[in-house]
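Quick one: structure tokens for this chain, please?
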Amino acid sequence: MKIFNDRWYNVLKYLAMIALPALALFTQTLFGIWGIPYGEQISATIVAVNALLGALLGISTIGYNKSQK
């Protein structure tokens, strides 16, 4: 069972592995430096979305690998 087609999988994998972790670190660091409110909450929300995305990508990968056997 494939959840995502190849194009979406690659885009979402890039987001999960590169973009969202970088964005979370950026917001936490910059908001802390400048004293902008809710920096930790925003960063934690990004990390939570990233964890969900990683789980969905993992499920998709398992389904794809099973279908290839």
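DSSP finds two helices and no strands in the chain.
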